Amino acid sequence: TPCYLNGEFTPLRDAKISVLDRGFIFGDGVYEVVPVYGGHPLRLAQHLARLDRSLAELRIANPLAPAQWHAVIARLLMAAPAADQLVYIQITRGVALRDHAMTTGIAPTVFAMAQPMKPVPAGLRARGAACVSADDFRWQKGHIKSTSLLGAVLARQISVDADATETVLFRDGWLTEASSSNVWVVRGDEVIGTPKGPHVLEGIRYGLIEELCEEAGLRFALRPVARQGVFAADELLLSSATKEVLAVTQLDGQPIGKGVPGPVYERLYAAYQRAKV
Ligand code: PDD
Questions:
Q1: Which end of the chain is more exposed for a tag (fewer CB within 10 A), N or C?
Q2: What's the fold here for domain 122-275?
């Protein structure tokens, strides 16, 4: 499989970067994960806009214009065997002798690859996910889609160790998000998400779920939800490029609502499938 690295397309196994790359040394970079269905990237414009917002926080100029990103992605997808893919994009500040200060005057390292999408296993989709909760010990710049992901790795491992699907995070008792997905609380016909801000990554599914709610006749709101409000929810949902929208039916061993994927999940999942085409 080919990948894109600094202007060239090469087989993934041949792609090499310097050990002095600031992405390797400092995690000084940003990334995107774009789902592709039947060869069509879903919400690519929104992903590229978020990439720009992340890059702006790092004071790195986007090395490619939108049309160039479209061309890179099209070329990667042309070589991709399966119709459903995940496109991964990463930009780091570039290669320089180690110094914490933002190095200027160097070329960023630009990387992209496409990989077959692994759908959520049917059994997990049917039963819903068991999750565990943890204190949100990550940093205060969660709105940047940064490659500095140690916080996410440590948070995710808590659920791996518990044989669970995701780790739902609370900061000072308030729901933020999960280790690599956003969390939605359902009460009646209302879908409630964490307000946008530095404690959450604004998933591209924020906008998509708002639209799907409108289409499904559900109310959509962003407001803080306390821990007891999450456990008392009628339904709980996760969303991400890879999970799409997924029901959470257990949290810390306690059932959420009736303990099975609920009607709001079913409506949003069906609407999500229609939005793919
Ligand atoms: N993760 N919150 C966090 C911390 C995330 O890492 C992600 C995505 C999301 C959901 O964002 P979106 O709807 O744009 O996928 C929320 C990606 C999939 C990843 O790191 O692989």
A1: C
A2: D-amino Acid Aminotransferase; Chain A, domain 2 (3.20.10)
